[in-house]
Amino acid sequence: MLVSSLLTSVGINFGLCVLYITLYSILRKQPSHVDVYAPRLLAEGNLKQRSSFNLERLLPSHGWLKRAWKLSEEDLLSSSGLDAVVLMRLFIFSLRVFSFAGIIGIFVLLPLNCTGTQAVDFSDLSNNSLDVFTISNLESGSKRLWVHFCAVYAVTGFVCYLLYYEYNYVSTKRIAYFYSSKPQPHQFTILVRSIPVTPGSSVSDSVERFFTEYYPSTYLSHAVVHRTSKLQGLINDAKKLYKRLIQLQSDPSQKKFKRDCCFGLCGRNVDLVDQYEKKVRRFGGECEIGTIGGFIGRGSSFEKSINTTSISLVPISKDGWVGGWGGRSRTFVSEVITGYLPSLILQMFLKLVPPVMEFLSSIQGYISHSEIEKSACNKVLWFTIWNIFFATVFSGSILSQLEIFLEPKNIPAELAVAVPAQASFFIAYVVTSGWTSTASELFRLFPFIWSLLRKPFTKTTADEFEVPSIPYHRDIPRILFFGLLGITYFFLAPLILPFLLVYFCLGYIIFRNQFLNVYAPRYETGGKFWPIAHNSMIFSLVLMQAIAVGIFALKKVSLASSLTIPLPVLTLLFNEYCRKRFLPNFIAYSAESLIKKDREDQNDATMAEYFDKMATAYQDPALLPIQYSENTYSLNSPLLSSAESRG
């Protein structure tokens, strides 16, 4: 790629970023678009109502930048939870890493690369190839490669230091967050599955008998959870009909009659209001019948299956409950996930990858949305690394890519040849996919278009308003993938580093703004996404070091290649130390933390009242009375009402 091509790409995407940010700074002040750009503030009632029209509303402003910049970590923790803090710590970590790497890469490595075998013609810079800025421009055996060798060691040490610091920081925050949190139902609840039932007794009786006999001092009550996916479908249909009925009754201008034959072209006139009222009443009856049938049918199915009892922690109240897939075979899921996932899906429908991976995770048997999103986050990350990085680098079929990795001794040499050749592509990728996608996150392009198309035909009331939650399984893999590109290419093509720094600066400001105005926490994992980020960074380091071993050998600097070999070993030993030191805290809280928390609860006078509420804390959303005007998450509704979960 020529420098002119890169500059063209940078110019186009920079223009798009400026356009998105300018439009956002104007549209966010328009009352008609407040549900797109400040849904969280609108739902919480913290939105300042603008009075009459004034010219200032049509001019761009930077007030949102100041508010996003001034947001403290403690405020973010209290309003959006520890998961939001982890996402922002990921941006801070990346900015620190690539600021350090950028100083070395731009001011040390880049000048060395430019003065290699092919000198840069500054009088005709736009027609130079980007290869003159990469390590490929250095001749074999050049002593300048020792500077790159030192840079690899320096960046590895700096990244490992920051990884340890951040792991320890997030781990400490996780414990402090647990101590400061109010008692939640999920902390006192376990989920029991595959319950063996003796003839003549129900599931409820079996659970009662078992826990009363073996855990008399800690058992309080239980609730049987039913599979209500069919019932939930009926409820959703009833809600849709109710919305249509409200629209017809509230808008006198709408047509209230239509013909009942041939899509309204012929037949007798039918009163739509009367028709929808009858359907709503009919659905109400079906829902009631479905509720009764759900208890009976589920109980009989339990009696027919005598399995080993499975016990696990219940999902967090806000976390929600995923029903209908728990009993599927994990073997089938494994075959689907590892089998048919062609790279064409990613290249043509990249935005479909996170929801597809979320669906694949949901059929693995996870019981909560946090577990599903963590699993999907891992899948999206490795899917992206394989289908964007390795598929682009090796540019061949899946079989040819696998053949390379089947011979481990040839991996460094293959990477040393293939990775530098794609440096120009990934620089353009950072600009195109990084800058523009982050700016479009601020502008919220698709929600804005959907709002424009929907408003002429519907009238959304406050009860029907829904505040979005941030899709961590979409955003965290993207950040980590750009981190992989930066660590991998910092010594091969240092020119990528300024573009990455711009991306992380944009993301840091924009996501802080989104947490303030747009996204509301739907569940809380307590920072469990950080181990995924840590493992990804370790993989990026090992990949960079393997490429360094191959590139130094390819450039006939065998001593540097040999001295680089200990780096992957030391990095993996460091990762093993961090895994043993910090990971257990992210799997479960220590006995010391739990005992300390229990002692604090024992001295709390309100705990007796809280335990009284625990008996009815968890309820199946599908079995609650239908409230048509209330906005819910359908199958994703929490088993505990939001009011109780915040108390």
Structure, described:
It contains 26 helices and four strands. The protein is mainly α and 647 residues long. It has two domains: 3-184 and 324-603, no CATH class; 190-313 and 617-647, no CATH class. A two-stranded antiparallel ribbon has the order 1-4. A two-stranded antiparallel ribbon has the order 2-3. Helix 7 (145-180) runs antiparallel to helix 21 (530-554) and helix 19 packs parallel to helix 21.
Q: Could you provide a short overview of the structure?
A:
With 647 residues, the protein is an all-alpha fold. The chain has 26 helices and four strands.
Please name the defining characteristics of this protein.
single chain, 647 residues, mainly alpha, two-stranded antiparallel sheet, two-stranded antiparallel ribbon, 63% helix, globular, disordered C terminus, calcium, CSC1/OSCA1-like_cyt
